[in-house]
């Protein structure tokens, strides 16, 4: 799931209405039918603005279309990069299986996907399920893209009904049919917006009206894992299987059960229970649904958007770093050794998440990035200015992605079996 344009008035959205604390696995039988939650959207730019934020924006209300209780968005926040759809991540957070090829997938609204099997040098196999555009449609890709169990899985829908699509080869994609979503052993269908999706290392988890879980990305059942009190809006969900951690950036708009503003909660049991640390600056997650992201290496978590926050103890305590790159962060990712941020038109590197060094200026600028196969790929959210690099310093221009007017929301790296579409390099 990582960009300065004025933000438009927010359309009607679902709201994460978590009135009760997350249920402990000791207190809840795995077969218990969890209470539904509602998910909602962070106000964003219009179609042309993508994930761009705005300085000193006016508080706006996120109103749920079916009984949702909207709240006031906090004021303030720095400016995002023009026309930005933030994000991009380093390689899939699991070791590559033997005999596989690394592939990077770009996800956009309408379930637009294109993939590259040569570290961003060339792109192929455009797929698209819908021509709907904008931040508030049933095909908006805020839910993000994850890789696990040998499969890419994407969540779409900032407005009902949501959709989950998947692919085992990054070439052929299919939507998961409603019959595959069961509750209490009976078909339930998805039928709702989706706030976020991640792969925990054991299963995929998706937050919609219910918390959905799947071992393979194909068959889904409701499970435990409500977000904690005050988490009225789910802004970003990322999982880090190597570290055994799931991180959720959430927001309280009403001030009930939690002070208003953005905050981060961390789970070490696959999203079943959550805890909030101390010292977090809400500006680090504002507006993370449109700029910035979450990355983790070892015990260090970095959350970056308008500002940067770092935790060295898995989210127990946080240090607010302000803007160490003298700009807000458009995209954030990691490669298992270093963190990388796209900020102020430059690619920056940090080995500890606190001290940052500018590596280069990708010609023409970039808003999303990923580390893949020992190199890097960056691009703008409209699919233009795609570039790749072996060292993060010298860049070569690649193909423009034919996005058809959509916005790229996320980049994800995974591994596929070599074949005609993705041969061995």
Quick recap of the structure?
By secondary structure, the chain is an all-beta fold. It is built from no helices and 30 strands.
Shape from CA axes? Answer: globular
Sequence of secondary-structure elements = EEEEEEEEEEEEEEEEEEEEEEEEEEEEEE
Structural class computed from helices and strand pairing: mainly beta
Estimated radius of gyration: 19 Å
Strand content: 25-35%
| Measured distance between first and last alpha carbons | 27 Å
Description:
By secondary structure, this protein is an all-beta fold. Helix content is 0%, strand content 33%. The chain has a six-stranded mixed sheet with strand order 9-8-13-12-11-10, with no helix packed on it. It has a four-stranded antiparallel sheet with strand order 3-2-1-30, with no helix packed on it. It is globular, with a radius of gyration of 19 Å. Mean pLDDT is 80; it is low at 1-87.
Layout of SSEs?
Elements: E1 101-108, E2 112-116, E3 124-127, E4 144-148, E5 151-156, E6 163-167, E7 174-175, E8 181-183, E9 186-187, E10 196-199, E11 204-207, E12 211-214, E13 220-222, E14 233-240, E15 245-252, E16 261-267, E17 275-276, E18 293-297, E19 300-304, E20 308-311, E21 319-322, E22 329-334, E23 339-343, E24 346-350, E25 357-360, E26 368-372, E27 375-379, E28 387-389, E29 396-397, E30 408-416
Parallel strand pairs: 8-13
Antiparallel strand pairs: 1-2, 1-30, 2-3, 4-5, 5-6, 6-7, 8-9, 10-11, 11-12, 12-13, 14-15, 15-16, 16-17, 18-19, 19-20, 20-21, 22-23, 23-24, 24-25, 26-27, 27-28, 28-29
């Amino acid at each position: 799931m990582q960009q300065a344009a004025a933000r438009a008035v927010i359309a009607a959205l679902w709201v994460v209405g978590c009135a009760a604390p997350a249920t402990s696995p000791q207190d809840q039988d795995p077969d218990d039918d969890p209470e539904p939650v509602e998910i909602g959207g962070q106000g964003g730019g219009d179609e042309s603005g993508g994930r761009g934020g705005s300085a000193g924006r006016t508080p706006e209300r996120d109103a749920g279309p079916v009984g949702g209780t909207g709240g006031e968005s906090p004021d303030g926040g720095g400016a995002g990069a023009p026309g930005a759809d933030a994000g991009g991540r380093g390689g899939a957070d699991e070791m590559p299986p033997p005999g596989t090829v690394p592939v990077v997938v770009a996800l956009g609204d309408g379930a637009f996907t294109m993939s590259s099997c040569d570290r961003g040098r060339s792109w192929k196999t455009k797929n698209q399920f819908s021509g709907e555009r904008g931040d508030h449609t049933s095909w908006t890709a805020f839910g993000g893209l994850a890789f696990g169990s040998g499969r890419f899985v994407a969540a779409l829908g900032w407005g009902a009904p949501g959709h989950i699509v998947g692919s085992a080869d990054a070439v052929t994609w299919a939507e998961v049919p409603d019959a595959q979503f069961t509750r209490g052993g009976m078909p339930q269908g998805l039928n709702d917006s989706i706030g976020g999706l991640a792969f925990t290392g054991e299963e995929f988890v998706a937050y919609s009206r219910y918390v959905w879980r799947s071992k393979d990305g194909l068959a889904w059942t409701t499970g435990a894992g409500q977000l904690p009190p005050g988490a009225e809006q789910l802004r970003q969900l990322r999982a880090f299987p190597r570290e055994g951690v799931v991180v959720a950036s959430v927001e309280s708009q009403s001030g009930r059960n939690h002070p208003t503003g953005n905050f981060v909660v961390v789970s070490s049991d696959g999203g079943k229970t959550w805890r909030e640390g101390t010292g977090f600056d809400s500006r680090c997650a504002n507006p993370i649904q449109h700029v910035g992201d979450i990355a983790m290496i070892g015990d260090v978590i970095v959350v970056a958007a308008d500002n940067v926050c770092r935790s060295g103890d898995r989210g127990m305590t946080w240090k607010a770093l302000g803007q160490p790159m003298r700009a807000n962060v458009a995209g954030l990712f990691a490669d298992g050794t270093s963190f990388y941020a796209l900020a102020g038109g430059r690619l920056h590197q940090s080995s500890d998440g606190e001290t940052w060094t500018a590596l280069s200026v990708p010609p023409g600028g970039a808003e999303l990035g990923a580390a893949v196969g020992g190199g890097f790929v960056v691009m703008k959210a409209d699919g233009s200015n795609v570039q790749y690099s072996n060292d993060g310093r010298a860049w070569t221009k690649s193909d423009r992605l034919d996005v058809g007017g959509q916005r790229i929301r996320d980049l994800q790296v995974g591994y596929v079996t070599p074949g005609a579409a993705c041969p061995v390099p």
